[in-house]
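During the reporting period the student researcher (J.K.) took over the structure-prediction task from the postdoctoral fellow and processed the backlog of single-chain submissions. One of the processed entries is reproduced below for the supervisory committee.
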Amino acid sequence: MALKSITYRWFLNSFGVIFVILAAVVAISGVSIHNYYYASVKEVLNNRASTVDGMMIRYSENTVTANFYTEIRSYVESFPDKNMMELMTIDHSGEVTLTSSGFSYNERNLPDYNMALSSASGEGYFVGYIESGEKIMAVTRLVTPINSEFSAMRFVVSLEGVDRAIFSMVMTISAAALAVLVLVLVSGMFFIKSIVRPVREIGVAARQIASGDFKSRIASPTDDEIGELCETINFMADELENTEKMKNEFISSVSHELRTPLTAIRGWAETLLDTDNYDAATLKKGMRVISAETERLSGMVEELLDFSRIQNGRFSLVFQKLDLLAELGEAVLIYTEKANREHIQIIYNEPEMLPIIYGDKNRLRQVFINIIDNAIKYSDPGGTVKIDAFARDNDIYISVADSGCGIAPEDLPKIKTKFYKANHTRRGSGIGLAVANEIIQMHKGSIDIESTLGVGTTVLIRIPVSGPENAPEQSSILERKPENEQKL
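J.K. obtained the following structure tokens:
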């Protein structure tokens, strides 16, 4: 596993923590079980010691000294718990004199007896191994009745069975912990694989998309966050593919748009240069075509430069107080003659006055020219372009409605997107409306478009009167139409 991989980090952070926790649980459980069992055995031995000590006190009170030794010897030999533990008597020299098993006890080292002698309570306790290698627990209690035969009673139990039981329980807990670890490891690896594999596929697809293969897609394996990420990347690829397609169409469209006026200029220039005898009317006509096409080229180049400035964040406006009617009237005047040449009627319902606004007059005139030019461009001979201006609340509205070809419903949401052209049969680069929308947004206004395919399009421009810093919130186009406005 690579040190930076998700699998390694999971193994270190998650599996490692679970392993440490389970190891601690096993260790704590083992210590707790060991202490519990040993404490239980010790308690049993102490209870037996207390019982025997009380019995010896009764024997010493009810019998004569000669019979005391006989009674104790009889009790030790018939000790009822001899199958569980061994009872021993110790004399004053520290030697074992009687055992409940009947066998002699030759161990010389009795730590529990020595502890009992030095203890104020007269009790001693020992856990350890005897010479035979057997592990035992011994509890010694000094004999309360004063006599010459017995110094203490010792209770001894083997811990071999207890240790086996403890070991068995610890092994059971360890096996359960190991099973949990294996389950966590298997399920974790399965989970990690379900993440790592799609992530690798996403990485491969992302690299293909980055290299220009916008048709690369990722199959969504699940409906969770990974699936959502796959869908997002597929959506991104779709958008990039659409953008690439629009960019190519834009380049083709711009190339065609530039070629058309250049062809006209070159044609008339060659005609005027190659002809020695031509009348004044021909010269005037040629120069008029050259001038018009040059102006058209200049407008397209300026539009491209504006778009480039917007993309680079260097597009700026010069705000000042201005009369919006003057700029709108000039734009209408510019296109009236052009509309007449194309047999399109412009109907301009000019209001008496509008509030003075705060804006860039050249850029706003550019917006009006672009919108009116589009209305004429997408209208057929015999059509009409209706222009209205009115004020409502703190906004000024400019409505430009044409009776042209209209826009399809699926194209309408994208119409203000850069490079996008809904109708490729009409001239235009596809960035004019995007530039106009940017200009109006920088004035804290909005451009809303309503259109019906084959009927016409209405563009409604909203510009706040109070200036871009205090412009009201954007509202829908239907809410901005006056009650007495005629539908086109």
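The committee noted the following: The first helix runs from residue 6 to 62.
J.K. will present the remaining backlog at the next meeting.
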